[in-house]
Amino acid sequence: MRTSDAEILIVPGLNNSGPDHWQTRWQQKLSTAQRVEQQDWDAPDHAAWTHAIADRVNAAQKPVILIAHSLGVAATAHAAAHFEPGKVKGAFLVAPPSEEWLRAHALDFGAFETHPRDPLPFPSLLVGSRNDPHAAYAAVEDLAFTWGAAMLDAGEAGHINSASGHGPWPEGLMSLAHFLSRL
Predict the structure, then answer these.
(1) Residue environment code for 7-37, b if the CB has 16+ CB neighbours within 10 A, otherwise e
(2) How many angstroms separate the CA atoms of 93 and 37, rounded?
């Protein structure tokens, strides 16, 4: 699948993705990419976040590719039950936080503190880092298995955000292209 044949929906996590974050850069580079906006990026509300994602997916006029990061991955997994069947052709999911990290965080993440345990109803690639401070690699592997996602080991890449040196993240863009070529 080519990016021009799909609506690319960028799903950031907590605090949104700033101007140097790879999601923002990819949104600017990919002509059909749009960000799923949330009412409050700093205080995630489970119902509001999942409905915002589901509403954008269900309103799409083309097949949808989701590109989610961090809490956006969890929100995407929770929203998947509300997608019209067949709308999403694939999801590129990067650096999800573990349930343990969510429960230990100062914010109350509510229903996000437990990840869905049903397989995702679309092909997905889950990218995990060996030294992500938000999730042990084994927890990310478990999510990939649970969701039926392919797993990509990003090595020691931190949280795969601009703070860990992943501004443009060309390796990620190549991985996305490879994933799309298989859809």
Answers:
(1) bbbbbbbbeebeeebbbbbbbeebeebebbe
(2) 17
- What are 66-98's pLDDT values in tens digits? 999 999 999 999 999 999 999 999 999 999 999
Could you report the per-residue pLDDT of 131-183, keeping only the tens digit for each? 999 999 999 999 999 999 999 999 999 999 999 989 899 999 999 999 999 99
Residue 111, domain extent: 3-181
Q: What is the CATH number of the domain that holds 150?
A: 3.40.50.1820
Residues forming beta bridges with residue 88, ordered by sequence position: 64
For residue 168, the surrounding DSSP H or E stretch is none
Q: For residue 90, list its beta bridge partners.
A: 65
